[in-house]
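Review form for a predicted model. The reviewer records the input and the model, then writes brief findings.
Reviewer: anonymous (R2)
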Amino acid sequence: MMALMTVKPLPIPKEEPEVFVPPPTVITTPCGPWPRPYYLEDGLRKVHPYHFTYNTYCKQRWRDREILDIFATEFRDRPQEYYKDAIECGRVVINGQKVSSIRELVKNGDVISHTLHRHEPPVTAQPIGIVHEDNDMIVINKPAGVPVHPAGRYNYNSLVEIMRAERGHGWNPLPCNRLDRLTSGVMFIGKHAKAAEKLTNQIMARTVKKEYIARVIGEFPEGDVICDQPVMQISPKLGLNRARASGKDAKTIFKRLAYYPPTGATHGAEEKGQDNRSERERQRDAKMEWKAKEGYSIVRCLPLTGRTHQLRVHLQFLGHPISNDPIYCNQRVFGPSLAAGDDLSDNDEDIISRLSKMGKSEAAEAMAYHDEMMEEYNKRKAEKMTGELCDVCDTPLYSDPGPQELGIYLHARRYACQDGNWDYETPLPDWALPPPGMAGPTNTTMETDPLALVDEVGELKVDKAESQSKGTGETFIERPVPLWVMPG
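Model under review:
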């Protein structure tokens, strides 16, 4: 027989009612001005100053750090004294409340708000070119110097806001690819989410071939040059990247389109041999290794990966940086060699320190200005503090940017679908055309097309029997054209 027992029911745990935790209080910007406060002056698009509030959640690297320390180390726009005063006066708040001290710790989940009288830098007044437009997509030719999205000091002077201002307040441009602020060229703007998602997925799947044009110092080697040097970001704050063996994989094909020697080199051997420099100029040039690289080259560039600043870093590593690149072609930052062939140096902290100190007090010393008069002119025209203050907020005012700050010699010339469904390109930019008095290509040809090399080697899966690696981050494909071997 089976005995029956009485079992006491187990107590049912009492469920605690869910408590709604409201999100942190934040300060919101009043409705932005419409139409946007643009005005055109001296070839620049400018924005009248206006009040604006930035809101941002605490980032992981900000947790348990003092509020002033975060602003002083993460943002370069203004000096530490400004941020100290803004915190103490309540223009910087946490969760909508004024903080008790500049040493207040920021915690996970906090919202930091910063209200300021916003002064945007000018950008070029050059219009946004239309390469193609249909019901789904606009293919544009982005001007150099214009950021794609609002970021940092730029808001209304960004590509999406300029296009919104041109097409109506309710229109929402959807960029499908990204170009650096200083870079010009082909961009895709979706008219609706489905079209933008489709093209973005194509680009992410690497089924879209991209070609850039760059103007670099010196005589770039002929033939097909493949650089597969990994790229590493060494300063998120400065957006600085370097060639590093421990970085992320990166591959680029380069092919020279043209080389233009110095003007004096075309006037005969006698005149070429003359040295009209002063003793001071000869001593100065002797300290600059890049000065030995005469003239400049126009190079076609095909990135097979999409690392930040990939083309700029690879060209620097090959010893032919972009002529007017204020970072990677800057002797004050990288020294006389401009970091050519350098992927092992342990001087990253020194590089970061030198670059951060440059600030806005003077122009970056780009290395391409062989004409000393032009170099001095560009220095004078650079954006720098004028010594004047804003009547509303006492913010130090800057002069207008110089030509070298509105863009670099890097242009996204062509985007092509791998299956041949579409192919969009722009003409060569003016700086890539032959200089006055010299002959040279005014367009690209199949003979200089790096896209053809991709088809030939099968997306860079190069057979070792058909290629040779020099152990320096470059691969040289065996072709009839003479190829370059990096010295040393």
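Findings: The first helix runs from residue 67 to 74.
Further findings: The radius of gyration is 27 Å.
Recommendation: see findings above.
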